[in-house]
Amino acid sequence: MPRDADITRERIIAAARKLYYGQGIRSASIDAIAARAGVTKKTFYYHFRSKDDVIAVSLQSRDQPALDIVAGWLNGPGTLAKRLAAVFEGVAPLATNPRWKGCGFLRTVAELASTPGHPAVKAGAAHKKKMEALFADAFRAEGLSKPEDRARQVMILFDGALTEMFVHRDPDYAKAAGRMAALLANN
Amino acid sequence: MPRDADITRERIIAAARKLYYGQGIRSASIDAIAARAGVTKKTFYYHFRSKDDVIAVSLQSRDQPALDIVAGWLNGPGTLAKRLAAVFEGVAPLATNPRWKGCGFLRTVAELASTPGHPAVKAGAAHKKKMEALFADAFRAEGLSKPEDRARQVMILFDGALTEMFVHRDPDYAKAAGRMAALLANN
Fold it and tell me: What is the pLDDT of residue A1?
């Protein structure tokens, strides 16, 4: 059974995630996060050292869930070509979903471009490396040559597709990227 | 000979571009832009209606220069495969350039995710569409089938490469994307 303090911490993280994703990191204040979580600023600072800390922790809270979603598509039934295509078919509907405001990891790294060593920038980069490793594992499991090179190419297509989908709100970019990704499963 | 007012306007645009790219759109104030340009806020507001206006205009000021750089690589000598690879070789050194803070168009769209109709978001999307049209023209000039589909795939690779290069500060992503792009010049 979780402790009350853990529940409060999770509530602050959820509020931060929601506000940062909805409004952007620079726009959402600690006051707004505390108010949304229903806690005082004193309680906020009991759980988090600083705004930088809560930015990083709230982004990290999406790390494993996002990896699990992609792994679910990638490690499902069928040929690897079909499963790679499934990853891109999986994200395609986001393009026209008005609640989707782009990849939170990429947006965070972009918003914090002036502070490259920021813990949230590191968390964003680490997430993308883990995603790339998922793709490499899938190529390795098929016994394909150069799994790391292929994974890197899928990763470029994946983040390229997410980026174009967000800029143009057009799911066709995901489909075009998925066709190229499926070819990477060839010998 | 440019009028003084034109020179002042250009100076404000240059100051805005520098501060927005260096610090981010949300962080750079009108006061800071006016100070950097050496003008009063009254002069600023003689030239620009609002912060949103100067964000859009300063981004647009990079539209044609960025297209010209890519067109220079794409329309140089050699086969189309080599010229497509040259585009990616051209951007690769940015990854390790500490002054490079990612693609300004993509960063602007990311920072303004909460205001999708913002004129700068439209300017960013329009720039990316023009870049895609450059690639389509290159495929069309070679008489290749489905030039728009190929251009869309190059665009995904291009923005995917810029994104990974910025997240990981690793030029190998540009090279990996360039190898895939060169294949798109095949029949």
Answer: 65
Q: What percent of chain A has pLDDT over 70?
A: 99
Longest dimension (CA), chain B: 58
Q: Mean pLDDT over residues A178-183, rounded?
A: 97
A101, A118, A156, best to mutate vs chain B, most B CBs in 10 Å: A156
Report the pLDDT averaged over residues B33-43. Answer: 97
Q: What residue of B is the nearest CA neighbor of A158? A: B160
Size of interface A-B (CB pairs under 8 A): 131
For helices B119-141 and B63-74, what crossing angle results, to 10°? 20
Are the C-beta atoms of residues B128 and A167 closer than 8 Å to each other?
A: yes
Amino acid at B45: Y
Are A106 and B180 in contact (CB < 8 Å)?
A: no
**Single-letter residue type at A182:** A
B152 neighbors A176 (Cβ within 8 angstroms): yes
Residue B78: CB atoms within 10 A of its CB come to 10
DSSP symbol at A77: S
Q: If we measure between CA atoms, which residue out of A13, A129, A127, A18 comes closest to residue A66?
A: A127
The residue count for chain B: 187
B chain contacts of residue A110, beta-carbon cutoff 8 Å: 102, 106-107, 110-111, 166
User: Measured in whole angstroms, how far is the alpha carbon of residue B37 from the centre of its chain?
Assistant: 23
All residues of chain A having their beta carbon less than 8 Å from the beta carbon of residue B101 are 113-114
* Cα(A15)–Cα(A23) distance, integer angstroms: 12
Residue of B nearest to A149 (CA): B176
Distance of residue B41 Cα from the nearest chain A Cα, in angstroms: 23
Q: For residue B72, what are the contacts with CB-CB under 8 A and spacing of at least 6?
A: none
**Distance of residue A118 Cα from the nearest chain B Cα, in angstroms:** 12
State which residue of chain B sits closest to A114, comparing Cα positions.
Answer: B23
Complex confidence, ipTM: 0.96
